[in-house]
UniProtKB/TrEMBL annotation:
This is Antibiotic biosynthesis monooxygenase. Gene3D superfamilies: 3.30.70.100. It holds the Pfam family ABM. GO terms for molecular function: monooxygenase activity. The keyword Oxidoreductase applies. The lineage of its organism: Bacteria, Bacillati, Bacillota, Bacilli, Bacillales.
Length: 101
């Protein structure tokens, strides 16, 4: 298994707006080969900290997704988000290989 987490810090008053975007996400990745699951996590102590947590069967599946046209389409939508304050926020991406469970 392979885990990818993207952490973004948004202004607390915008957190619900961003959560709504993810709740209405395109779901293109859901059918992608090797994709296992998606969760959006909200930090209990800092509600403006949101983490996209994705589980993949292996690193190769994730890499193929990142190199795909579907990935580019999904991320182009984010760049065109009308709220410029949110569109300028860059995530911190962390990648993990599952070594025990």
């Amino acid at each position: 298994m392979y885990i990818v987490q993207s952490v973004v810090n948004v202004p607390q008053e915008k957190a619900d707006e961003v959560i709504g975007l993810y709740q209405g996400r395109s779901r293109m990745v859901d059918a992608y080969d090797g994709f296992v699951s998606f969760q959006l996590l909200q930090n209990e102590r800092d509600p403006g900290e949101l983490t996209v947590h994705m589980t993949w069967q292996d690193e190769g599946s994730y890499v193929k997704w990142v190199q795909s046209d579907a990935f580019r389409k999904v991320h182009e939508l984010e760049k065109n988000y009308p709220d410029q304050e949110l569109s300028g926020i860059k995530p911190t991406v962390r990648r993990y290989k599952v070594v025990a469970h």
